[in-house]
Task: inverse folding
């Protein structure tokens, strides 16, 4: 597997980069909005009491009640929150049939279209921002609809390219693209915000959109939906993949009834865990910069802190993924036991970290959030070798259906979390972040307990 002569390893790396660009384009707005908005004007105009509840912003050794990030957009806190939420609402329109489209049209073709559309929408974001807030809001809504096709395409490709014994370690690698996007995109965006390149924050969207378009050319050249149709695969690897992947699909010649899938307890565990982790991921992707800003941290620090949990997840995966493959591959423990252990670490560990995040950081002690975010990222990575590996393993011939169910739960979780944040922002509650992180912790515990009882990789 770990060889440049192994094209499935090349495909794994391409899927990693695809995940990065797919989510970096969506998430660039999370950091950019902190720079786009003239926060001092916005808070004085729309939220007169916010300066009394929020922390003073530290910048170059000085502090002041200014939320001192230059910007030209006079968007209220609720408008900012809605802008960050729009893509999740847009996904609701397409998520139900995204898996079916990936199956029927070919996941490689669908992935190409997703990358190109995402690139185009990202490139025109500065133009729409200056033109009209509502046009920008619509574009984010459309990006969400496009984004819902991304994950089903990735999962369908993974089911065709990676045999059972490679699934856990391959998933650990290519899903790291999400963490690179969550971390590096925020750091890059924060750096570009402070630069004079192309006017500062607009350069975020030009750079992200342009590099996505460039990568798409590499994907078209080297990626295909199945090993049999890929000209870069050598004959030995082609035979190996044909024996270890297609054979499993052929055994399922009689389609599993949808009712049996919907009534399956292991499927319920996958859907519930996916809901829990999507709920938390949405908070970290879309709203962590705003949370850190309200703790009084400057934009440079926000960029580094936002990177922290995602890079910690990559570090955790580099340990957990190989361990699961080693112990299950040598029959020391079953793959089901390994996935349950990994999921327990992810669910219960993340729950504890979220509780700490809800009660410990404050205006006088904002930097403790860094340590908590490191712990959160390390334990969160267990989910990849938990419920996600289970989803890739239990029914390859029904991957499109399973992916659609998983995607629906992800969108519902994203909408739920953003709705909660929007509602609490509207109320102006000083305890909104305590309530948000505590609710995420409870949901994580419920998902982990259900998988511990009903989860399987068979």
Result:
């Amino acid at each position: 597997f770990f060889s440049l002569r192994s094209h499935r390893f090349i495909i794994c790396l391409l899927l990693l980069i695809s995940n990065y660009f797919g989510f970096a384009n969506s998430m660039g707005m999370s950091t950019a909005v902190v720079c786009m908005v003239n926060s001092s004007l916005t808070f004085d105009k729309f939220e007169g009491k916010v300066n009394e509840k929020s922390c003073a912003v530290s910048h170059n050794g000085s502090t002041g009640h200014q939320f001192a990030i230059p910007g030209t957009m006079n968007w209220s806190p609720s408008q900012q929150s809605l802008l960050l939420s729009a893509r999740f609402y847009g996904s609701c329109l397409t998520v139900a049939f995204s898996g079916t489209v990936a199956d029927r049209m070919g996941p490689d073709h669908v992935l190409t279209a997703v990358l190109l559309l995402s690139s185009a929408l990202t490139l025109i974001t500065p133009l729409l921002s200056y033109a009209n807030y509502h046009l920008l809001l619509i574009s984010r809504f459309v990006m969400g609809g496009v984004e819902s096709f991304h994950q089903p395409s990735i999962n369908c490709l993974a089911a065709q390219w990676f045999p059972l014994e490679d699934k856990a370690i391959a998933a650990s690698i290519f899903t790291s693209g999400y963490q690179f996007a969550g971390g590096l995109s925020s750091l890059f965006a924060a750096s570009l915000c402070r630069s004079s390149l192309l006017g500062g924050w607009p350069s975020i969207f030009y750079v992200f959109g342009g590099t996505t378009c460039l990568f798409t050319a590499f994907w078209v050249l080297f990626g295909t939906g199945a090993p049999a149709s890929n000209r870069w695969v050598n004959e030995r690897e082609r035979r190996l993949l044909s024996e270890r992947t297609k054979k499993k699909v052929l055994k399922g010649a009689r389609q599993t009834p949808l009712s049996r899938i919907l009534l399956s307890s292991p499927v319920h565990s996958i859907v519930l865990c996916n809901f829990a982790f999507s709920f938390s991921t949405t908070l970290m992707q879309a709203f962590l910069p705003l949370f850190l800003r309200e703790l009084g941290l400057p934009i440079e620090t926000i960029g580094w802190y936002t990177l922290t949990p995602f890079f910690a997840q990559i570090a955790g995966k580099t340990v957990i993924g190989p361990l699961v493959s080693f112990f299950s591959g040598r029959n020391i423990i079953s793959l089901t036991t390994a996935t349950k252990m990994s999921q327990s670490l992810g669910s219960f560990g993340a729950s504890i970290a979220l509780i700490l995040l809800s009660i410990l950081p404050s205006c006088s002690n904002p930097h403790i959030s860094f340590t908590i975010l490191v712990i959160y990222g390390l334990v969160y990575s267990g989910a990849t070798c938990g419920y996600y590996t289970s989803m890739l393993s239990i029914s390859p011939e029904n991957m499109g259906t399973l992916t659609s169910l998983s995607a629906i739960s992800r969108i519902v979780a994203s909408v739920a979390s953003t709705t909660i944040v929007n509602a609490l922002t509207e109320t102006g509650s000083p305890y909104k972040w305590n309530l948000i992180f505590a609710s995420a912790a409870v949901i994580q515990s419920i998902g982990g307990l259900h998988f511990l009882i009903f989860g399987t990789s068979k």
